[in-house]
Amino acid sequence: MERYVFISYSTQNTEIAFRIKEYLEHKGYPVWIAPTDIPVGERYCNVIEKSIRNCRCFVLLITPSILRSQWIDKEIERAIHYRKPVLGVVLEPAELNDELRFLLSNTQISDCVRSIDDGDPALQSVLRSLAFLFEEGERQAKPLAVDEFSAVRSERNMGKAQLIATAKGLIEGFLASPQRAVEVLSRLHFKEVNTYLRLLWEEVSAEEKRTIERNLIAAYRRVRLDPDVTGRREYAVKGQLIYYLTRFCAPTAEGELTDTLKAFYEGEDNVWQRQSLAYGLASAGEFEVPCDYAQKVFAGRDEDVVNRSWTLIFFGDVRDCDPYLYLDDGTAGWNKAREARLSRLKRNDPKAMAYRALDLAVLFAFYRSRNWSDFDAVDYEVIRKAEVSSPEMPKSVKKFNKSIQKELTDRLKAVRDTAQDADDRLGCT
Predict the structure, then answer these.
(1) Which residue has the higher pLDDT, 104 or 181?
(2) Domain extents for the chain?
(3) pTM of the model
């Protein structure tokens, strides 16, 4: 996330939009605004999408003209999609239509700005909001090595007694209340603690497990509505809630908890949390949600880079990086992640088959991101021989698995044959 304000406005308000741009820049806030910040020859839609995704906050200039602008609705939708803070700055009173009222239902909207100067109280209120958002953004953007991730590293260096005590603290928090569950999960916990948590879980009674399940579900719903749980804390808490619900509360393929998690997936717009839900539901033996997520990875949507990035950190190919800020650029090694996915492709047990769509999609995404050059003959044979259907799979999942397996083997074979032809030519010279 970069440090600038994205200004969204109707072209009928160009003059005042640029006056506000100059005013904000004079106050020290970098501003991105179309069309001046769109490089010559670039497509507007691509540049605007990227600029919204990378901005610190999104400022909408509200006048009656925005009601007639198709671009405005799209820009607001993308800002909401990327969970950007949206500030509505009223320049002229406007009766919003139903669509804009819906899109801006959770947006802070200023009083009407009468003049672009330090004497306008509404504009000064906007500046105070920007100051808060930029300060909050700087706090959340600190590398985890300074705060949360240093705690994770120290957790990895804990002795057995400390790890057990931390695991006990998690269970006690889960049992206490939804609010306490949120508090104990505000810090990331990795496999070292979870190994002992799994051992302690065997001592938890059936009634206590039901209480924990109810509290974790309520905590997830609470986090979605709590304005104090934002940024990386929100990502960490929700991701861990999903992990413990799916890995410890033992949902079944068609159980009530699984139905609740599927509803969470449908209502979740954050790609990191949708990934957690997809993998969690796969662990429960559910097929359709993991396949839906795998299709998005295969299509190269936001889920692709998020999945690759998280996978690299999870398996340790990339270390000491914030899992919610790190983005794979196609250069990091991925040997551990690759071996884990190929290893599961060799298995045909029900759990492995539930992950099949995800494993094939993430392998495809990694090869694609590295220009199809990072593989060997062993990879090809494992993928070619992998079983991609089972009696329990819906037809749509079987169809997707077969299609991506064919795409993978065709592409890898083509790369292999090209390399062989090059070797043959070199041998003839």
Answers:
(1) 181
(2) 5-140, 143-250, 268-429
(3) 0.61
